[in-house]
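Saturday, quiet lab. Running sequence design on the structure tokens for the scaffold JK sent over.
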């Protein structure tokens, strides 16, 4: 005899492990827009444009810290998950998405804390500056001094400009 109550039912594994909020995910999927997914790992920021399909999500465009270094001239010794690196990753992802014909999306930050001015919103600012239409409030975006990396090092501003120039040429 098996137990059938709601407390005995096994929840989805990603829910048990705290990896997916299925209620928030379904809310986003009902809108029908592509999702601009931003994830910050221990070593880098990953920005992806993801479409939902019944067979599974498909990734249309993906940019991460390694792509910034290899293709867009981000300094090897600089952090790939800092606010400036997140901004450049978002900028590169949006330019690639626009080139592929995707002009609008909604932001998917997953289970990350939505603190004003954090790395996720730095990537959002990069996407918006590149020309993507993503609904957001201006008060959550980090200020320009943090985007330019003045809190880290003065050379970061030059690296951002060089990376943006490389992205524009690609």
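Result came back. Writing it out in full:
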């Amino acid at each position: 005899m098996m137990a059938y109550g709601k407390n005995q039912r096994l929840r989805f594994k990603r829910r048990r492990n705290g990896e997916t909020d299925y209620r928030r995910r379904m809310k986003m999927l009902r809108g029908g827009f592509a999702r601009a997914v931003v994830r910050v790992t221990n070593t880098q920021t990953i920005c992806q444009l993801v479409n939902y399909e019944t067979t599974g999500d498909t990734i249309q465009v993906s940019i991460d810290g390694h792509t910034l270094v290899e293709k867009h001239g981000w300094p090897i010794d600089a952090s790939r998950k800092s606010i400036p690196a997140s901004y450049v990753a978002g900028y590169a992802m949006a330019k690639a998405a626009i080139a592929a014909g995707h002009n609008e999306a909604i932001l998917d930050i997953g289970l990350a804390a939505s603190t004003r001015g954090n790395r996720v919103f730095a990537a959002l600012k990069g996407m918006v500056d590149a020309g993507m239409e993503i609904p957001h409030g201006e008060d959550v975006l980090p200020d320009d001094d943090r985007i330019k990396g003045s809190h880290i090092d003065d050379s970061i501003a030059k690296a951002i400009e060089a990376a943006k120039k490389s992205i524009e040429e690609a």
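Notes for JK: The CA atoms of residues 5 and 44 lie 42 Å apart. The domain at 16-133+141-169 is CATH 3.30.420.100 (Nucleotidyltransferase; domain 5). Ask whether to fix the surface positions before the next round.
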